[in-house]
Each structure stands twice: as C-alpha cells, then as structure tokens.
Amino acid sequence: MSKGRTYWFEAKTYGIGWGLPVNWQGWLTLCVFAGLLLGGLAGIESSAYRIVYGIVLAALFVAVVIWKGEKPVKWRWGRNR
Question: What does the domain layout of the chain look like in residue ranges?
Fold first, then answer.
C-alpha cells in the first residue's frame, strides 16, 4: 500500500490477480455480488438472459476490484522476492 490508500482487495502473493477481500468494504462488495448473482439467476427463467446477467454482473464486479484493489503489475513469486 502506498500514500495511505486502503485497498479492498490485495494482490495475490503468488501469480497475478487478487485474493480475498482485506477489509469490510471488500467483503461487502463480494457478498453483494454473490447475493445479486444467486438472486438474479433464481429469478430469471431464460438461459440466454441468465448468461447475459451473469456476464454483466461479473464485469461490474471485476471493474470494482480493479478500481479498489491493489495493482497487480507483474507475476509474483512470493513476498520475499
């Protein structure tokens, strides 16, 4: 973390991408995403609409993670390297 910024999602220790949330805002975001996904999929009857709904919701979630998460700039091999 730099300049006092608090990330909602920390970069993974190994590999590239993000791990689990690191504070309550991240956990709330993840729970809202899961609730909307499960609730929406249960309420939508058409398979095509379910796919579109899931893709749009996942894209919005990834956008929030990119915006509020630590920037994974390169492949990581652990904390010591």
Answer: 9-73
Structural contact between residues 33 and 61, judged by C-beta atoms closer than 8 angstroms: yes
From the number of C-beta atoms within 10 Å of its C-beta (0-12, 13-18, 19+), residue 19 rates as middle
Torsion angle of the four alpha carbons 54, 55, 61, 62, in this order, in degrees rounded to the nearest 10: 150
Q: Considering the entire predicted model, what is its pTM?
A: 0.79
Kindly state the DSSP code that residue 11 receives in the 8-state scheme: E
At 6-59, the pLDDT tens digits run 899 988 888 888 889 999 999 999 999 999 999 988 988 999 999 999 999 999
Pair of tokens at residue 30 = 């993840």
**H or E stretch including 71?**
none
